[in-house]
Design brief:
EFR3_Homologs, mainly alpha, elongated, EFR3 homolog Bb (S. cerevisiae), 767 residues
């Protein structure tokens, strides 16, 4: 062998002749079953291949591969394994010169076939399968980086390689049951087929470039479909964990996009299959950190929301196509529910991988998908339209609870959200309040307000307090009145239960801890007193339980806020009233109301002043500490705005009716203000006609002023300016749009005079 090697190295042009001779001998020996000579010839070829790296090695390789093919075609396992081992050695050699005419198609097919071997003897079967896996690994190594070779990422190759690997990954259950004896194990720590397969699969994926990810993942999806492996979830999750950890991190979003596409394609498949795909998505999103979702963030959420809506519709209609034919699949409601929960969890998981600003966008996007009662029924289902709408609202709000971030500065998000807090459905109202809590809670104080109770010393709650920032002050100035109003109107709801009052207490508590400056504290105290008045008001059709609950809520909150303000006289008054209640009317305190069997009176007709918190007394004690007494002395009146269009309207006409608000922003303090004005067609018509008339007068007056400045002599203009300076400023200011009027189309039709920028002003008028 040494002599042969020396000869081949010294005369490399003879290599192809040597290869051809050995190949011929080996073919003859295989045919004659002389397996000893076969092994000698193969070993000789191997050693020559390892030793020689000259220019003319290509022709020798052809002979070598021809012999390997001959061995692999044999039906004897030992020869197949011998041929595979030689091929693996060859695959590890880096060749200097490219090969233009070499084909590996046969090897891909044959090694894939060996991976599926069903030989009777289990040990030999395992050896053949492992040889097949190593062979595939060799083919990948040899071809993946060689641009001249047939593209290994073509579907014809991938459809053989990937299922072969997955088949061996899947056979883990069978192999684990046959645990080897300790003697065998210690004899030689062999690598199991599953470990080898996983290593080979990871290597294949690790070599995948951007354009090849799809080629590698598509056969995986097909294999899981064909063998119904989504339903078990565990194997599918394991496969995609391997994929996500093996590919380059910047390509993660491609895998997620393919999963989303596959979910869409299976939208009429059974709920267990869809739930399996969603579960895999959940795991994949968790692995592929912040960069995972890639450029199509909203597309991801759009697909998931669409699946949620489809699932709700399937559950309520009972079929995938809206019809109830006998031939359609039977839909199991509990499976659809499990799918919906999985989708909601996945939405939350995806959102948690995003930066805060993108999460805010996602929240707005989901809000936009929530159907508004009476205006946009999302899924036109003949039988159960309102029920479908309600279910979709609940599911999407549950998704928002998962997504919500501590960043509620977006007015566009807050207004539609608050509007949903006034719907008749108690479950929807509760979800909206939960979302509000998660938006406001920045220091994780929410669990400390989980129960309504009178805490004599709030230091035991260990609240995390922070100074109110300028941004917080602006937020409360902008949205404070809306929040107070919704808390007030939620307390008026007859369908509110204990969890609603507990959530409202938590909301009041978080507002006091997270966003309260002096002005906000005053408003919150006024709100608590207004809630007490609401519970006393006989005009409101509130049941006795709700009245007692509102009294208890106001008491618990005033007990909290008085300790946060640290004004001793204020605390004293609150504690005195609470003590009197404990002795005389315990059913006005949370400890007696929010229990399983609460002992409530049949009615609350007569309540003495000594068990009530007095506005005059609170104003007096807080005024001595520098609080705004004028504001404190003004009872709180909720401001009714156009947001109520979502609250309790039944018909489309009522839903779209507009509540005009032309008073100043501080109008809540004005007692004489009517809570809401009934608007009819006539009043709207008159308002439009009046506003048009006012616009005409304003235009005419401005035209005269402009004409005067254009045509009058300079002396007259100078004298006029000296007398009436404000009229000059009219030239530089666009006309004020009359607030509160519906002027969307009318401003555009006005016949404008010469535009301001084209006017010729006297020199003294221009700065």
């Amino acid at each position: 062998m040494e002599k042969l090697t020396f000869y081949a190295l010294s005369a490399p042009e003879k290599l192809d002749r040597i290869g051809a001779y050995l190949s011929e001998r080996l073919s003859r020996d295989v045919a004659r079953h002389r397996y000893g000579y076969v092994c000698i010839a193969m070993e000789a070829l191997d050693q020559l291949l390892m030793a020689c790296h000259c220019q003319s090695i290509n022709l020798f390789v052809e002979s070598f591969l021809k012999m390997v093919r001959k061995l692999l075609e044999s039906d004897k396992p030992s020869l197949q394994i011998l041929g595979t081992n030689s091929f693996v050695k060859f695959a590890n050699i880096e060749e200097d010169t490219p090969s233009y005419h070499r084909s590996y198609d046969f090897f891909v097919s044959r090694f894939s076939e060996m991976c599926h071997s069903s030989y009777e003897d289990p040990d030999i079967r395992t050896n053949i399968r492992m040889a097949g896996i190593r062979g595939l690994q060799g083919v990948v190594r040899k071809t993946v980086n060689d641009e001249l070779q047939a593209n290994i990422w073509d579907p014809q190759h991938m459809d053989k390689i990937v299922p072969s690997l997955l088949f061996n990954l899947q056979s883990e259950e069978g192999t684990e049951s046959r645990s080897p004896s300790p003697l065998q194990a210690s004899e030689k720590e062999k690598e199991s087929p599953v470990e080898l397969t996983e290593r080979c699969f990871r290597e294949l994926l690790g070599r995948a470039a951007f354009g090849n990810i799809k080629s590698a993942v598509t056969p995986v999806l097909m294999h899981l479909d064909n063998h119904s492996l989504w339903e078990g979830k565990t194997f599918a999750v394991r496969c995609f964990k391997i994929i996500m950890y093996s590919i380059q991190s910047q390509h993660s979003h491609l895998v997620i996009q393919q999963l989303l596409g596959h979910l869409d394609a299976n939208s009429k498949n059974s709920a267990t299959v869809r739930a399996g795909i969603v579960e895999v998505l959940l795991e994949a999103a968790a692995i592929a950190a912040s960069g995972s979702v890639g450029p199509t963030v909203l597309e991801v959420f759009n697909t998931l929301v669409k699946q949620l809506r489809l699932s709700v519709d399937y559950e309520l209609t009972g079929s995938y196509d809206g019809s109830t034919n006998i031939g359609t699949k039977i839909i199991k409601a509990h499976e659809e529910r499990q799918l919906q929960e999985a989708v909601i969890r996945t939405i939350g998981s995806f959102a948690n991988t995003l930066p805060t600003y993108q999460r805010s966008e996602v929240m707005l996007f989901i809000m936009g998908k929530i159907p508004v009662p009476g205006v946009s029924l999302t899924l036109p289902s003949s039988d159960s339209g309102p029920e479908v709408t309600r279910m979709i609202q609940i599911m999407l709000l549950k998704s928002l609870v998962q997504v919500s971030v501590t960043n509620c500065d977006s007015r566009s998000f807050l207004e539609p959200l608050l509007s949903f807090s006034l719907t008749e459905d108690p479950e929807i109202r509760l979800l909206v309040l939960e979302i509000l809590l998660s938006l406001i809670d920045r220091h994780e104080n929410r669990p400390k307000f989980s129960r309504i109770s009178i805490v004599s010393d709030i230091s035991v709650l260990k609240l995390k307090l922070d100074k109110c920032s300028r941004q917080d002050n602006l937020f409360m100035k902008k949205h404070g009145q809306q929040l107070y109003r919704h808390i007030y109107l939620n307390c008026k709801e007859e369908t509110s239960a204990q969890e609603h009052y507990e959530t409202l207490f938590a909301l009041l508590g978080l507002l006091s801890v997270e966003l309260a400056n002096e002005e906000v504290v005053v408003d919150l105290i006024r709100l608590a007193l207004a809630l007490q008045d609401l519970a006393l008001c006989t005009d409101e059709p509130l049941p006795t339980y709700n009245r007692c609950a509102v009294h208890a809520l106001a008491a618990a909150y005033l007990n909290l806020i008085c300790q946060l303000t640290t004004v001793p006289a204020f605390c004293q008054h609150i504690h005195e009233v609470i003590e009197v209640r404990r002795k005389e009317k315990p059913y006005l305190l949370p400890e007696d109301v929010f229990v399983q069997k609460s002992k409530l009176p049949s009615s609350l007709d007569k309540i003495d002043a000594d068990v009530l918190f007095l506005q005059s007394k609170i104003t007096e004690v807080l005024g001595g500490s520098g609080y705004n007494t004028e504001r404190l002395g003004t009872p709180y009146v909720p401001q009714y705005t156009d947001e109520d269009r979502l609250s309790k309207r039944k018909s489309i006409g009522e839903t779209i009716s507009i509540q005009m608000d032309v008073e100043s922003r501080n109008s809540p303090e004005k007692k004489e203000r009517t809570p809401a004005e009934e608007i009819t067609f006539e009043t709207l018509k008159n308002a439009i006609v009046d506003s048009v008339g006012m616009e005409e007068q304003e235009r005419e007056r401005r035209r005269q002023v402009v004409e005067k400045f254009q045509k009058a002599p300079f002396e007259e203009i100078a004298a006029h300016c000296g007398a009436r300076v404000p009229s000059l400023f009219l030239l530089f200011r666009p006309p004020p749009s009359p607030s509160g009027t519906i002027s969307s189309g009318y401003g555009q039709t006005q016949s404008r005079s010469v535009p301001i920028y084209e006017m010729k002003f006297p020199d003294l008028c221009v700065y």
